[in-house]
Specification:
The complex is a heterodimer of chains A (395) and B (116). With 395 residues, chain A is an all-alpha fold. Chain A has 20 helices and no strands. In chain A, helix 7 (131-137) packs across helix 8, helix 15 (295-309) packs antiparallel against helix 16 (312-326) and helix 17 runs antiparallel to helix 18. Classes of the chains: A mainly alpha (395), B alpha+beta (116). Chain A binds chain B through residues 71, 73-74, 110, 112, 158-162, 166, 170, and chain B through 1, 87-90, 93, 109, 111, 114-116.
Chain lengths: 395, 116
């Protein structure tokens, strides 16, 4: 019920915001319409098409508000555009209201807004998280987050950031920005520490993008990636909050339904024959869900991903996959070419390969280096400490 | 909707070019301005004399304080502007990116406040 409400709410907001160019005004009008619905529907019965009823009522509220605003610039134009929204509350032909949320997403993720504002606005407007929930998830005081949202909405209204799907020549870059926001929400939710409210929102947003932009391979790729990682969420963290390595995860906790949906999304993406970083990452995640892990194939995919992104973190993952495919010495040779100052997972990976090569002294030093760099309250610490104790014991 | 496109660049960057390059650059500016006019988007636009000619004035306690130089001494300075008519920020950004100086400096895009 609550999910249905959120969906309906953001759809209605999208329709009004697009016409008004003002998310604040749209949200207020839709909110008022819901308040009227709560008092009227139990008495008079719910309308045949609740969504259209809400849109029509919110539209009328917005018209009232704009009429009262004496000084509003472009008043006549706003009113004319509002009149253009269908006011047929109970059109039996029109069972659902059109989904214009895609236009709203592109507005929320406009490059003229700071990335942190894009993320907050997308979660607030389309995800339907409260300001307090978003503030908590990103470790910012609620007042700061509220201010960030107010500024972003005002900039959309006053600078006339259009709430529309960009033209074809802009679409690739703009879509990349939208996917990046959803990916960032997912990463923040993935943790550590994991935050289920964010991974859930990332999943909903990715599903929405894939549905509304069916010709975009990377939209399906991102959805697949999120689904395949989300499928393993329950097995990723032990009861004491420590991180469980993939190889040691209890596979019975994996969600087969999500894995299936993830693989279907990946198949849809690959059928479009436009490879990209999200599809490659999803393909790697898919291979990790198989009973026997195909490490050579994973190493190949990481190699292609490294070529696309040029990211040293991807190179690190590639080295780990090569170590699994061709032995620790081959992986170590790749790691020794990498430089990632201050990043604890590089010495952690080196330590692991040195340990497997039986070079306990060097492994111990690398574990200590990783511990010195690891976040103080990160769940990796206990794992690194345990391994350090092991190699010191075998010396 | 009107947008002010403020052109910031390093003073003397034009002087550092060869004469042929400078002429080509100015030619680009002329055709850009023509394109703006042709599209019916041009409201106003000018280049400014260098900041060596700038004078700043403030009124403090009823007293007029006049100083030599621009508002702030920064590497990139306001060197000119266009005032254009555009439907949305996206359209304004399209035009801003076509200003020849966008390659060398920065164009700040500001919506103009509308009253009444």
């Amino acid at each position: 019920m609550e999910v249905a409400f959120r969906e309906e709410r953001s759809r209605c907001v999208a329709i009004l915001a697009r016409v008004l160019g003002d998310i604040d005004l749209a949200e207020d009008a839709v909110q008022e319409a819901f308040v009227i619905a709560v008092s009227r529907w139990p008495r008079d019965g719910a309308p045949a098409n609740p969504g259209a009823w809400i849109v029509a009522t919110a539209r009328n509220r917005a018209i009232d508000v704009i009429r009262r605003e004496r000084t509003l610039a472009g008043k006549t134009e706003h009113l004319a555009r509002l009149e253009g929204i269908s006011a047929h509350e109970d059109d039996p032909e029109e069972r659902t209201i059109p989904d214009e949320r895609i236009a709203l997403i592109f507005g929320c993720c406009h490059p003229a807004l700071a990335l942190e504002a894009q993320v907050a606005l997308t979660l607030r407007t389309l995800g339907g998280l409260t300001t307090e929930e978003i503030a908590r998830a990103f470790l910012v005081p609620e007042a700061t987050m509220a201010q960030r949202l107010v500024r972003a909405r005002r900039k959309i209204r006053d600078a006339v950031i259009p709430l529309r799907v960009p033209d074809e020549h802009e679409l690739p870059a703009r879509l990349a920005a939208v996917l990046a926001v959803v990916y960032l929400v997912f990463n923040q939710g993935y943790g550590p520490p994991p935050r289920a409210e964010l991974t859930r929102e990332a999943l909903r947003l990715a599903a929405l993008l894939a549905r509304l932009l069916p010709a975009e391979a990377e939209a399906h790729g991102l959805l697949a990636l999120v689904l395949l990682h989300e499928a393993r969420a329950a097995s990723r963290v032990a009861a004491d909050g420590s991180l469980v390595l993939l190889a040691e995860q209890d596979r019975s906790l994996w969600d087969a339904r999500l894995i299936g949906a993830g693989k279907e999304a990946l198949a849809r993406a690959m059928a479009l024959r436009r490879p990209g970083p999200y599809q490659l990452q999803a393909a790697i995640a898919a291979l990790h869900t198989e009973a026997a892990t195909d490490w050579p194939q994973i190493a190949t995919l990481y190699d292609r991903l490294a070529q696309l992104t040029g990211s040293p973190v991807v190179e690190l993952n590639r080295a780990v996959a090569v170590a699994m495919a061709d032995g620790p010495a081959a992986g170590l040779a790749l790691l020794d070419r990498l430089e990632l100052p201050g990043y604890h997972l590089l010495p952690a990976a080196r330590a692991d390969l040195l340990r497997r090569l039986g070079r306990a002294d060097e492994a111990g030093a690398a574990y200590r280096e990783a511990l010195a760099l690891a976040p103080a309250d990160g769940p990796e610490r206990s794992f690194l400490e345990r391994r350090l104790a092991e190699v010191e014991g075998t010396r | 909707m009107q947008y002010m496109l403020l052109i910031y660049d390093t003073e003397g960057s034009l002087a550092a070019l060869s004469e042929a390059e400078r002429n080509a650059f100015m030619g680009e500016y002329f055709s850009y301005t023509e394109a703006l006019r042709g599209a019916g988007k041009f409201v106003a636009g000018d280049a400014l004399q260098p900041t060596a000619t700038a004078t700043s004035v403030r009124l403090r306690g009823g007293e007029r304080l006049v100083t030599d130089g621009p508002f702030a001494e920064t590497k990139e300075q306001l060197g000119g502007y266009y005032l254009i008519e555009a439907e949305s920020l996206d359209e304004a950004l399209e035009w801003a990116a076509k200003i020849p100086s966008a390659r060398l400096g920065t164009i700040e895009v500001r919506p103009v406040m509308v009253y009444g």
